[in-house]
Each structure stands twice: as C-alpha cells, then as structure tokens.
Amino acid sequence: MDRLTTNTSAACQLIPQNCRVLSIHGSADKIVPMEDAMEFAKHILNNKLHIVNGADHEYTCHQNELASIVLGFVKDSSNHGNERAANKSLRSCL
Prior knowledge:
Elements: H1 8-13, E1 21-26, H2 34-42, E2 47-52, H3 63-93
Parallel strand pairs: 1-2
C-alpha cells in the first residue's frame, strides 16, 4: 500500500472497531509528517496515538522510550483481555 495514494479514511474503516491500535510517531520524523499520524488517529475509534518528542523516523535516540510505550500498551491490552474474560465468566455464572 503506497502511503501517498492511500485513502486514510477508507483504510481505517477496514480496522474492526474492537481492535485496539497503537500509533507511535516521532515529532522529528522527516520521512512521514506528524500530521499523517494525527489524521490516521482521527479515523480509528480505538486508537492511542503517542508522539515521541524529538524522535526521528527510526527512533535513533529513543529506542528505550519506544520499547516502554509498546510494552505498556501490550500489558494494558493483556489486562483488558483478562477483564473481559472475568466479566464473561461472571455473566455465565449468573
């Protein structure tokens, strides 16, 4: 998919509404403008956009921060899954 010819709104509509999405973008990215990340985030219901201040496209000096953001999102996703499973189990017992 070519970023320059992609209809962002249409592409985002293909993402299921119950799918949690993490978007991470560097404020100093010279390859993909930060506005693109913000536009993408506007079209996804369950999106968390995280801007890494000063990070370039490859997060050259921000690898630890990038890893921390991703791990936090994954851990949070895991907790959401456990809550849903517990609620489903509770409902089935009632």
